[in-house]
């Protein structure tokens, strides 16, 4: 984990760079696709869904959550990705839904810089690194 400063524009600009965004999407998808069949099952997506940290924390400490509620939330999130409801998520579905989620994050953050703790392989971390590389170049 690292502490980064970013805003909504960081996310939007990263997604607008199709080459960088697509590379990140393809890398993440390949990492999650453990059986290499070109589709993500619920089990393969579960770790990614859990990384979204959809439940509140209080000063960085997780709140105890009902296990049944967790299952309902992760089931619902999986269905959001599985656009054709065939029980798996293909690369295009993954890309499309990830883009929508990142745009929602960008809109929620606004354009004032925010200091955040980011996981190393997260999309937000990749967006921050992309922006830093652009500033140096």
TrEMBL record:
Entry keyword annotation includes Calcium: yes
Pfam families reported in the protein's UniProt record: EF-hand_7
Domain EF-hand: 69-104
GO MF annotation terms: calcium ion binding
Highest taxon, organism lineage: Eukaryota
InterPro entries: EF-hand-dom_pair, EF_Hand_1_Ca_BS, EF_hand_dom
Keyword match Phosphoprotein: no
Keywords associated with the record: Calcium
This protein's name: EF-hand domain-containing protein
């Amino acid at each position: 984990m690292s502490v980064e400063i970013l805003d909504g524009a960081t996310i939007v600009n990263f997604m607008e760079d199709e080459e960088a965004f697509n590379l990140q999407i393809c890398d993440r998808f390949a990492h999650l696709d453990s059986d290499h069949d070109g589709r993500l099952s619920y089990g393969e997506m579960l770790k990614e869904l859990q990384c979204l940290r959809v439940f509140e924390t209080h000063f960085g400490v997780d709140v105890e959550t009902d296990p049944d509620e967790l299952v309902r939330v992760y089931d619902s999130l999986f269905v959001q990705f599985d656009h054709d409801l065939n029980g798996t998520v293909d690369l295009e579905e993954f890309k499309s839904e990830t883009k929508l989620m990142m745009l929602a994050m960008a809109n929620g953050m606004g354009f004032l810089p925010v200091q955040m703790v980011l996981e190393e392989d997260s999309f937000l971390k990749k967006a921050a690194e992309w922006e830093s590389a652009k500033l140096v170049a």
